[in-house]
Design goal:
The complex is a heterodimer of chains A (about 250) and B (about 100).
Chain A lengths: L8 H12 L5 E4 L4 H12 L5 E4 L3 E2 L23 E2 L2 H9 L5 E4 L3 E2 L5 E2 L2 E5 L2 E5 L6 H4 L5 E5 L24 E5 L3 E5 L7 E5 L5 H6 L18 H10 L11
Parallel strand pairs in A: 1-2, 1-5, 5-10, 10-11
Antiparallel strand pairs in A: 3-4, 6-7, 8-9, 11-12, 12-13
Chain B lengths: L7 H6 L6 E3 L10 H8 L6 E5 L4 H8 L3 E6 L5 H4 L3 H7 L7 E4 L2
Parallel strand pairs in B: 1-2, 2-3, 3-4
Helix pairs in contact in B: 2-3, 3-5
């Protein structure tokens, strides 16, 4: 597979998200999450066996429903569900330790995985930029075994040396993963800081370092395989309107 | 049982200054936008709005400075329209007109 011809950053990120999901997992994403939504539908199309819960109250909806807008609140993630399973029940499920992955995002993050979602600049009551809030991440991150953050930009404005006000932060005893358009960082359980885990085929460790606000100690990193023919076919099948591209515009 | 079905104007008349309103819908979807617009004709003050993921319906009340507090987990218009402009207008800067009470 050739970058720029057969696939681009959206498809690479989606493939990386698909590969995070293990057989038997319970997986959640919330609203404003079009990238993981398309990836999770594609993972279902590929035959992965996992449980998919989301904010529409649908449990394992019919993954062949195509999204038509870059919202994860519309009927396509509810119709054909095997059961109605509301947000309150999702939070209870995760709080009782039965969730596996929550796909979440951020405005900013630092090397220890502290996430800003509330505001940037100023203080809480006088913010320079008021953000949307944690959207459940402050509840889910500490109780989720493999919290996974996706962010469709990779730059020094987003990945900063220090987050002033952390809306949430990882539990030191749990795995924590960050997927960007360039690479994957991981904080293994028991460790405090994110480490560069692998880079994508079209970038270099140097480019990752140049676009990251914290110091990356790793001098080299393995290169993740590009999306497979099967993964690309699954993405096209579940997303005929190319909603996956929306967050990368 | 008390009759709940009424006109939009009658429903808007139920709302008084300082009330806490649960605004339905999330983001850009399923919001009672006409109801929020009806309130802007009054106008009211010191309303509180709450919801798991309030969006355009609550944003109208913040944009018009009728609401001074929002209780929420996520307040925004998703990827489709981005950050909520009324919320930002009311909450940002040195002298904000409204306060965010996040429960997330």
């Amino acid at each position: 597979m050739e970058y720029g011809k057969d696939y681009g950053k959206p498809e690479m990120m989606a493939a990386a998200i698909i590969r995070e999901i293990r057989e038997g997992d319970v997986v959640f994403h919330g609203l404003a999450s079009s990238t993981p939504m398309v990836a999770m539908k594609a993972a279902k199309a590929l035959g992965k066996e996992f449980t998919y819960v989301t904010l529409s109250d649908g449990l394992d909806h019919d993954w062949s429903n195509p999204p038509t807008v870059a919202s994860t609140l519309t009927a396509n993630t509810y119709e054909g569900s095997v059961a109605t399973f509301g947000l309150d029940e999702i939070f209870d499920l995760y709080a009782s330790g039965k969730g596996d992955i929550a796909f979440l995002s951020c405005l900013q993050m630092d090397k220890s995985g502290r996430i800003a979602m509330s505001y940037l600049g100023g203080d809480y009551d006088h913010p320079k930029l008021r953000g949307p809030g944690g959207a459940g991440s402050a509840t889910l991150t500490p109780v989720t075994p493999r919290t996974t953050i996706w962010k469709t930009v990779h730059d020094k404005r987003t990945f900063v040396e220090h987050v002033d006000f952390a809306t949430t932060a990882p539990d030191i005893n749990k795995d924590f993963t960050l997927i960007t358009p360039l690479c994957i960082f991981r904080k293994p359980a028991g460790e405090k800081y994110l480490k560069l885990d692998c880079i994508f085929p079209y970038t270099t460790v140097e480019e990752v370092k140049e676009n990251t606000g914290w110091i990356i100690d790793e001098k080299e990193a393995p290169v993740m395989d590009p999306p497979t023919e099967q993964e690309l076919a699954a993405l096209k099948r579940v997303d005929p309107h190319n909603i996956l591209a929306f967050e990368f515009k | 049982m008390r009759e709940k079905l009424m006109s939009l104007a009658q429903a808007a008349d139920l709302i008084k200054d300082g009330m806490l309103l649960g605004i339905g819908g999330n983001g850009m979807h399923r919001n009672p936008v006409l109801f929020s617009l009806a309130l802007t004709r009054k106008p009211l003050k010191e309303l509180k709005v709450c919801g798991a993921a309030p969006g355009i319906g609550a944003d109208i009340l913040l944009a018009t400075f009728q609401a001074d507090t929002a209780y929420f987990g996520f307040f925004g218009l998703e990827n489709e329209a981005g950050l909520a402009p009324g919320m930002r207008k009311a909450m940002e800067g040195p002298e904000p007109k409204a306060r965010a009470m996040e429960g997330s």
